Amino acid sequence: QVQLVESGGGLVQAGGSLRLSCAASGIIFRINTMGWYRQAPGKQRELVATITRSGSTNYADSVKGRFTISRDNAENTMYLQMNSLKPEDTAVYYCNADIGLGIYQWGQGTQVTVSS
Predict the structure, then answer these.
(1) Average pLDDT along the chain, 116 residues, taken 10 residues at a time
(2) CA 85 – CA 74 distance, rounded (Å)
(3) Residue 104 bridge partners (DSSP)
(4) What's the pLDDT at 1?
(5) CA atoms of 104 and 100, how far apart (whole Å)
(6) Where are the beta strands (DSSP E) in the chain?
């Protein structure tokens, strides 16, 4: 079984930066596309960014130019560098991974709070 653990969340002032990490552990054969999602209170979970195994990326319009997704396949780890943070970025951030056989694994989430 594969586990995903996020870290790096916290409280930051508007305009600040945070770097989230998502580490996969367990019995890993091959992790395909990975992604970051977020869910704010009272709202649906939404896509933030995705990255394929070869490094192709996709971003939500709301974070383009501010967030950068990356991954280290050797370490089974994914990152999200978040710059110029805004109060509307406040949410619980979840990582997601396609671990094969049609299985998409979720992490437990990490809270990001941006104060104005």
Answers:
(1) 94 98 90 97 97 97 98 95 98 96 93 97
(2) 29
(3) 98
(4) 83
(5) 8
(6) 2-7, 10-13, 18-26, 34-39, 46-51, 57-59, 67-72, 77-82, 91-100, 103-106, 110-115
